[in-house]
């Protein structure tokens, strides 16, 4: 198998392009370590929604590629208290008065490794909070997050390792705003593209899109849905298989492709989002380690996914995208 990795450019930004016989990926470290493109060579399809211009990306960076969310989704008025400390994150969702999607997605990450062997490619990026005074001003912890992207055959593995290098417990919530093209086929036939999620607990939301702590049981996401004709912005509790993983699937019969998106047991929730009324070409399947507004939801941590890292503790959260034909 031919495996290559090289420095490149994407919309005039420094990028890393890596590929094998099955998949080709483009990573932009300066855009929050965003894997902005993933192309399936056999079908000639780009699987992720990818911007055509820098202006398009800047208008809403969460809608392209795989943005890294830390913490993921909304925090009520940007405020929560934990271990005697009050955190106040900026209100960047003005209409709803929430903080949205954290503070890592727009930072420049450092490339730590680029290597290719005959069988696999490894690209590794890191963010150190001590290099970003803006982060320390709102989240006063010394920490680092290293993401290792491993391309092997038809698999792209994404391992995120967080380390608390401080002396106090540090809240940790991680997610990915993974923005798939929808549908995957080039004809735009949405009836040929279905997705499934291993989840039946559907969280009820307030008019500010925050969980109430209540839920309803539904089998519609397990049975398979088309992201067409309805607006989706749903939070569901992930269900794990015997190995402790949770796997979402997108299958497009017209394109002849099946995409499996597997996450380990640290990812306790899925969010499904397909844009606003003027967007109909994406399907965001977002794995989260904690649910929206987890620090403020009055439920057990085992349910919300809220947790911390102790001093010098490290946590690795693993996910994988697998691509194949139907």
UniProtKB/TrEMBL annotation:
One of its GO terms (cellular component) is cytoplasm. Transmembrane segments: none annotated. One of its GO terms (biological process) is glucose metabolic process. InterPro entries: Aldose_1/G6P_1-epimerase, Gal_mutarotase_sf_dom, GH-type_carb-bd. One of its GO terms (molecular function) is carbohydrate binding. Gene3D superfamilies: 2.70.98.10. This is Aldose 1-epimerase.
